[in-house]
Amino acid sequence: MKALEERLGYTFRRKELLENAMIHSSYANEHRGAGFHSNERLEFLGDAVLGLVSGEFLFRRHKDAPEGELTRLRAALVCEESLHEVAQELGLGAYLKLGKGEENGGGRTRPSILADAVESVFAAVYLDGGMDAARELIHRVLLVREHEQAVEQRRLDYKTALQELVQRKQGQILRYEMVDSSGPDHAKTFTFRVLLNDETVGTGFGHSKKEAEQAAAHAALETLQRK
C-alpha cells in the first residue's frame, strides 16, 4: 500500500483504513470467516464528505450561480464518470481486492467499482486525518482545472438539465420526436422537437440525432425558464 499512499500524496497512520477502502463486497463475501469487511460503509461516508467539500468549493467559486446551477455543477463534478477518471489517474484498479467472479468479469476496470473505491478512499483519509486532509486530497485529485473543464462540457447536457427541471412537478411527460431528416448520407441534417405533455416546447437541428435532441432540449429550457 505504500505505492498507493505515494500516489495519493498521503501517509496513513491507520493503514487498515486504506486496506479496507480497497476491499470490494465480492471479496468480503468470499472471505467471511477471515473477518474482512467491504468498503461499502466507507463509500457511504465518502459520498457525504465529497458532497460537502465539492458543495463548499462550488459555492465559493461560483458566487453568483443560483441553487439549480450549483446542483447541476456538483452532479457533473462528482458523477461516476468523473470519479472513474480519478481512479484511473491514481491506478486504483491494481490495488482492489475482488472476488473471483468479479475479477474474471473485469471488475478492475468497471467504472462503478472504481468510482466507489475513490469515495471509499476519501472516507479513509477523512477518518485518518480529519476533514482538512480529506479536503486537500479531494481538491488535488478532483477539484482541479482539468476536471472543472470537463464539468463545463458535462453541463452542456441540456437533455439532463431539462429532465431535472421537468421532474420538479409530478405527472410530467417529456419525449423527443424527429420532425425531419434531409441532405446526403454523409452530411445529413436532423430536426427534432421536444414535447412536454404533448405540447412542443423546443425545436433543434443537428448533424446527428443526438446533436439535434440536445439543441431541442436547449431551446425547451430557454422556453420553460422564461415562464
Question: TL;DR of this structure?
Answer:
This protein is mostly helical and 227 residues long.
Description of the structure:
The protein has twelve helices and three strands. With about 230 residues, the chain is mainly alpha-helical. It has two domains: about 1-155, Orthogonal Bundle (Ribonuclease iii, N-terminal Endonuclease Domain, Chain A); about 160-225, Double Stranded RNA Binding Domain (2-Layer Sandwich), CATH 3.30.160.20. Helix 8 (about 110-130) packs antiparallel against helix 9 (about 130-140).
SSE blueprint:
Layout: H1 2-8, H2 15-21, H3 25-30, H4 40-61, H5 67-77, H6 80-90, H7 100-104, H8 111-129, H9 131-141, H10 145-155, H11 158-166, E1 174-182, E2 189-196, E3 199-206, H12 209-226
Antiparallel strand pairs: 1-2, 2-3
Helix pairs in contact: 2-8, 4-5, 4-8, 4-9, 5-10, 6-8, 8-9, 11-12
**Class of secondary structure makeup:** mainly alpha
State the helicity in percent bands: 55-70%
Largest sheet: 3 strands, antiparallel
Indicate the low-confidence ranges by residue numbers. none
**Proportion of beta-strand residues:** 5-15%
CATH superfamily placement of the largest domain:
Ribonuclease III domain
Mean pLDDT: 89
Shape: elongated
- Count of beta strands: 3
Radius of gyration: 22 Å
Count of domain modules: 2
Would you tell me which CATH topology of the largest domain applies?
Ribonuclease iii, N-terminal Endonuclease Domain, Chain A
Assembly state: single chain
Termini Cα gap: 56 Å
